[in-house]
Specification:
The protein is of the alpha+beta class and about 600 residues long. Helix content is about 35%, strand content about 20%. It has helices at about 1-20, 65-80, 90-105, 140-150, 165-170, 180-185, 195-205, 210-220, 220-230, 260-270, 345-350, 380-390, 410-415, 430-440, 450-455, 470-480, 480-500, 575-595; strands at about 25-35, 40-45, 50-55, 125-135, 155-160, 175, 250-255, 275-280, 280-290, 295-300, 305-315, 335, 360, 365-375, 375-380, 395, 425-430, 465-470, 520-535, 535, 545, 550-560. Strands 4, 5, 8, 9, 10, 11, 21 and 22 form an 8-stranded mixed β-sheet that branches. Strands 12, 14, 15, 16, 17, 18 and 19 form a 7-stranded mixed β-sheet that branches.
Length: about 600
């Protein structure tokens, strides 16, 4: 009792500290950079308190940054301070809101550092829940399984450690494999087959793929796309399907509005389909009976409430382990990371504690098109590069020489790129190529505001964005050999005129324009980036987790990135999100069959 009184007294002092500040009453506006542009806030003060906070303008990612926009203003008003804990996984948006609110506090005549936050949080308690299927992790596979499970008539509980669902699917490139779907045929690709898809995936994965898993994928992806389109309501862009070097057939559809729109639609479906979703709740233990059967999970939420969830089937969809350095090996470990903060290998570790077998754990998907926006952290320019290469953009090394067909697969660009003297590359562009590059930057999370900031710095900060009126000038800023670059440009232009790339066989349809003879010219860095782990748990064809000795762990299933072997040592375009959505559906069907 004495401790309780002391705590209340301290809380009262904090509250007094926060509310005693003599504000200049009124409404003030400020903005700060978010992940996709400025976040603008409006803060209203009375003489003695923060009365209201509103985010009046933002372009943050739906379901991730937008969660911070949704919850932080009310929390700051409650705390009477901008100095509160942020939303996990939405660090940039959180910082933007804090910074803008602090600016408004200064405008109101108070030092924001002096506002001691009062945060009252309910803690403790225990709850026991029962369900047919508990899904652990709300990424693409978890959302797919939750929706399918409910459609199949199951009671479903979805548990997510983050304050939102979406995972890596939200930040994927926006393309998805669609081999065998009705839409693939409707959009003009009619000759594809599971056999062709398997052959392409095996070649891309260095023949390390688990044959059973890639076969399961190839024979179920078409039905998954049809289900998503016809039953779930996911929309795709009608087109003739993009050219992708990894594939012998055009088989990648594009989500209408990109991956973030697809993920938001799945969230909305889940919100209305009767599934129970527990956010900010971390599963820390798999529960088993005396026979070794998994009978549910134990979890704890951010308020300290402990949940015992008893289930007829447990489905792990916790994603990869790209954000857990202790589980990574080189060369993946030293690559720039651009994936979700939630990818820490939780599901791997819980299943392995029960003797689950794993495969290909040393491999991760690296891309050759990252820019280093913070130490060790990347953003992607993959579609911006496409915009440049559709014009006259080329890739060069630090010596100013081309080293690859710019329209090759990511794997076949990455491999020679890491053999260059400084293990990276540079996109060299004339004005029209830069315009194509700049236009598509926001598609993968680089806002035009950020690009303008990088370019204004002109090589003095990371990431390297350089501009000059001459080839010599831009090369000097970027640290690229100018004489060689001039020779490379001349040679490339000769190839365009001859309609034949004699060095690297860049397809003729992507060599329609010569590099301009007059500036300005631009150079943007290209560094290896990484998010997706290729290795994971072994399963049978029902996605039931397999033990080291070959038997299954009864009651335990896995889907998505957590399952290893599907891709081999590298994944082609649109493959990861396609596997997540497919394996989630397949697992839910297998669980439904097992239960019923």
């Amino acid at each position: 009792m004495k401790k309780t009184l002391i705590a209340l007294a301290v809380a009262s002092l904090c509250a007094a500290s926060a509310s005693a500040a003599p504000f200049k009453a009124g409404t003030y506006t400020a903005k700060a950079p978010g992940i996709h542009g400025d976040v603008t806030v409006e803060v209203t003060f009375t003489a003695d308190k923060i009365a209201d906070i509103k985010v009046v303008k933002h372009e943050e990612t739906v379901g991730v940054g937008s969660k911070a926009v949704e919850v932080l203003p009310a929390r700051m008003v409650e705390a009477q301070s901008p100095n509160i804990d942020g939303v996990t996984g939405a660090t940039i948006t959180t910082t933007a809101i804090r910074t803008a609110v602090a600016d408004c506090v200064k405008q109101a005549g108070v030092d924001p550092a002096a506002l001691v936050p009062l945060v009252v949080k309910a803690k403790g308690g225990e709850k026991t829940l029962t369900t047919d299927m508990v899904v652990v992790g709300g990424g693409g596979s978890g959302m797919s399984a939750t929706i399918r499970g409910r459609m199949n008539g199951l009671d479903v509980i979805l548990v997510e450690k983050m304050p939102y669902i979406g995972g890596a699917a939200t930040i994927s490139g926006g393309q998805v494999v669609a081999q065998g779907s009705k839409l693939q045929k409707a959009f003009g690709s009619t000759e594809d087959s599971p056999k062709a898809m398997i052959k392409d995936f095996m070649a891309n994965g260095n023949n390390l793929n688990d044959p059973a898993k890639i076969s399961l994928y190839a024979n179920n992806i078409g039905a998954t796309i049809d289900w998503l389109h016809e039953k779930v309501g996911v929309k795709f862009i009608p087109n003739n399907l993009p050219f992708l070097a990894e594939y012998s057939h055009r088989r990648a559809l594009e989500f209408q509005g990109g991956a973030k729109t697809m993920a938001q639609h799945l969230r909305e479906v889940i919100a209305g389909n009767g599934a129970q979703v527990y956010y900010s709740t971390r599963v820390n233990k798999l529960l088993t009976d005396d026979n070794g059967r998994v009978i549910g999970v134990e979890a704890t939420d951010d308020n300290g409430v402990k949940y015992t969830i008893k289930a007829k089937a447990t489905l792990l969809t916790t994603g990869g382990f790209g954000n857990n350095k202790d589980m990574l090996t080189e060369p993946v470990k030293s690559a720039l990371y651009y994936g979700p903060v939630s990818s820490t290998g939780d599901g791997h570790q819980m299943a392995m504690a029960l003797g689950a077998k794993t495969q290909l754990m040393q491999y991760g998907k690296r891309y050759p098109n990252g820019i280093e926006v913070a130490p060790g952290i990347a953003k992607s320019t993959i579609y911006a590069n496409v915009g440049a290469f559709d014009q006259a953009g080329i890739l060069v090394d630090v010596n100013g020489k081309r080293f690859v067909n710019e329209k090759a697969s990511n794997r076949h660009i990455l491999e020679p790129m890491i053999e260059t003297p400084n293990h990276q590359a540079y996109v060299f562009m004339d004005q029209k190529s830069w315009e194509g590059f700049y236009k598509r930057l926001p598609e993968t999370g680089v806002s035009h505001e950020d690009a303008d900031k990088y370019l204004a710095a002109n090589g003095t900060i990371k990431p390297l964005f350089a501009k000059a009126d001459t080839i010599e000038g831009v090369a000097k800023i970027a640290g690229v050999n100018a004489d060689n670059l001039k020779t490379t440009v001349k040679r490339y232009n000769e190839f365009v005129t001859a309609k034949k790339d004699a060095d690297f066989d860049r397809p003729d349809q992507y060599m329609k324009a010569t590099i301009a003879t007059e500036g300005p010219y631009y150079i943007v860095e290209q560094k290896p980036r990484f998010a997706t782990t290729m290795g994971g748990l072994c399963t049978d064809d029902n996605l039931n987790v397999v033990k080291n000795e070959g038997t299954v762990i009864p009651g335990l299933y896995a889907a998505g990135e957590l399952v290893g072997g599907v891709m081999g040592d590298d994944s082609p375009a649109g493959a990861n999100v396609g596997w997540a959505l497919t394996s989630g559906r397949v697992a839910a069907d297998a669980i439904t069959k097992a239960i019923k």
